[in-house]
Amino acid sequence: MNIYLEIFTTFSKIGAFTIGGGYAMIPVIQKEIVDKRAWVNNEEFMDMLAISQSAPGILAINISIFIGQRLRGIKGSIIAAIGTALPSFVMILLIAMFFNNFRDNEIVNRVFMGIRPVVVALIAVPLISLSKSTNLNKYTSFIPAISVLLIVMLGISPVYLIIAGAVLGLFYFYLIKR
Amino acid sequence: MIYLQLFITFFKIGLFTFGGGYAMISLIQNEVVVTHQWVDASTFTDIIAISQMTPGPLGINSATYIGYSVTGNMWGSLIATFAVCLPSFIIILLIALLYKQFKKNKWFDAALSGIKPVVLGLIASAAILLVTPDNFVDWKSWVLFVAAFAATQWGKQSPILIIILGGIAGYILY
Questions:
Q1: What number of CA atoms fall less than 13 Å from residue A11's CA on the CB side?
Q2: Do B60 and A111 count as a contact with CB atoms less than 8 A apart?
Q3: Chain A positions in Cβ-Cβ contact with residue B30 (cut-off 8 Å)
Q4: Partner of A36 at 20 to 30 A CA spacing, among A54, A134, B13, B70?
Q5: Can you tell me the distance from the alpha carbon of A136 to that of B56, in angstroms, rounded to the nearest whole number?
Q6: Which residue(s) pair with B55 in the sheet?
Q7: Measured between beta carbons, which residues in chain A are less than 8 angstroms from residue B77?
Q8: What is the CA A129 to chain-centroid distance, rounded?
């Protein structure tokens, strides 16, 4: 099979069959790319994953671009990313086209009244494990608290807080670790 | 011009998302719900619910949905989705070129160590800002919230199952 077609079908399969976002996709990508096709070995994959996680953007898209680039340069990266994004793009587009017509439906409305508080809970859940893995000390635990205050009370854009966090991290490194 | 606004907004979201989909919610919310008011908080909550139940990353799903809602056609979806991915292309392709130097870059790691605690604040803000009168209509909403939190955190149930059960509960309760 043509390699570009193979890249496209592999990544669109990954995009079409993983529900639950980026982290759910990782084991599926690993199985397809490392175990089945041997496009990269496991060590390379782990490096790519670590870099994709620390780079900005959507994790699944980042790693698709990385692997596509490794296989066939820029063209490969574009095809891999389109493959990953296309299934959800098509599905969500269809939902967006039709869901707006159903939103005023009484049954749909009742169902979503139950779903909304549940979704808020799902967003709050990772906070517990994340706050453990972030290793906050008595100084750094102010950072999330201040971020919440600035975003919720003052409506400050998270963009500025990300930049401030990066500057703070660099500053600390420059002053103390060197 | 709305298409240019969509492009700039989602490019910004793609460029400044660190720490995965949940951190991205806070950025999308600030831009799309607070600044541009393209969708309201409860519609945004519905988009997250739909994203969780359909395949693919949250960032792609939100960009596609909001792009369509704002413009009423698929070009809006296409531009928003393209824009949210574009920073990744630029950054990952650069990294791929400088792979060896990047693998152990102390400065980058230092910056990232400062971003990590902020991400925690972003996710918490996203959850707090979604506690609106439209999303929490009465005490039953809070019961559902607590039950869903407990079932996911300690019961280790899958988010999809929790959302489906939430929908069934909503149908029965309201």
A1: 28
A2: no
A3: 151, 155, 157-159
A4: A54
A5: 31
A6: A19
A7: 89, 92-93, 96
A8: 17
